[in-house]
Structures are given as C-alpha cells and as structure tokens.
Q: What sequence folds into this?
C-alpha cells in the first residue's frame, strides 16, 4: 500500500512511499503467520511516537531525508501530539565494534559471554568493567552533539573513565 504524496518531489521518500507491506505466502520473522499486513517503518515511526507522547525523536543522520515524510504523516493524521525528529551523527569510537548486527553476532557465536561481558561496548558491559555512570556521562557531554561524521580516539574515552 503506497501514498501518492508528490510525484514531482526531489525527495524520493515523498513521491509514493510504501506504508504497508503485505506478506501473502511468507511467514514474518517475528510473528510467523499471525498477520499478513505490516506497517513500514517510515509510516509507523511518526505515528508510534505521536501516540506514545514522544516530544523529540532522536535519529542518526541517515534518517534526515525521511524527516519530510515523518512530518507529513503527522500533519495529515489526527494524532494527540506532534513530535519533532532531530538527527545527529553516530558515535564512532576508534578500534571499537559498535554495529548492533556485529555485536549480536559476537554474542550468538559465543565469542563473548553475553551483552554484559566486560569486553562489550554496552552499558552493562561497561558497568561490569567498573566504569562509573558519571564517566560515561562526562564522555558524552564532552563530545557534544554534531551532524559531522567523526571517529573519536579511544584514548578520549579512557580519559573520561579515569575521572
């Protein structure tokens, strides 16, 4: 199911975005055969935020081109509130695997003992390593918010852990 918003728009996301997909003969990876129709992320994201009372939806810069559709859905649907989507760059820490897919692979293949393994760059992993919450807060606050891509040297993170 698609929306015909503006076929002349330079933003591909605003031309005729798919808002629902229909899986007739294939089971869904999460729900199996329970449902046949599923909302697409770009459509469901804004509605879910509005119905849950979210005021600011924080996303990485890869979603910046999707913001006009996010706002269009909110403007053209009766919702209890109108959240704002704000984009910022990813936190890239040198010499550190931060990809969720790769971290899941490490856990599933038994290379680490779970999400709380001290070698994992997760909050529970850092906690088990003995990193105090104040150090993590200091590290994040010292970086600030940016839209520019960058790699943070690991020594900056280590310096924050010593506070």
A:
């Amino acid at each position: 199911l698609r929306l015909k918003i503006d076929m002349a728009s330079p933003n591909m996301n605003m031309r005729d975005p798919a808002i629902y997909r229909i899986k007739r003969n294939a089971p869904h990876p999460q729900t199996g055969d329970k449902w046949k129709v599923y909302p697409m992320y770009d459509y469901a994201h804004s509605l879910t935020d509005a119905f849950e009372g979210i005021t600011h939806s924080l996303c990485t810069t890869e979603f910046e081109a999707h913001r006009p559709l996010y706002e269009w859905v909110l403007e053209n649907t009766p919702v209890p509130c109108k959240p704002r989507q704000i984009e910022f760059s990813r936190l890239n820490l040198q010499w550190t695997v931060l990809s969720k897919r790769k971290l899941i692979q490490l856990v599933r293949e038994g290379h680490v003992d779970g999400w709380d393994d001290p070698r994992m760059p997760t909050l529970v992993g850092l906690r088990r390593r003995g990193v105090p919450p104040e150090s993590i807060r200091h590290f994040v606050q010292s970086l600030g918010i940016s839209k520019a891509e960058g790699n943070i040297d690991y020594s900056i993170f280590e310096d924050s852990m010593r506070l």
Notes: Residues 118 and 130 are 9 Å apart (CA to CA). Helices lie at 41-51, 67-75, 100-108, 123-129, 133-143, 154-161. The two ends are 53 Å apart (CA to CA). The longest helix spans residues 41-51.
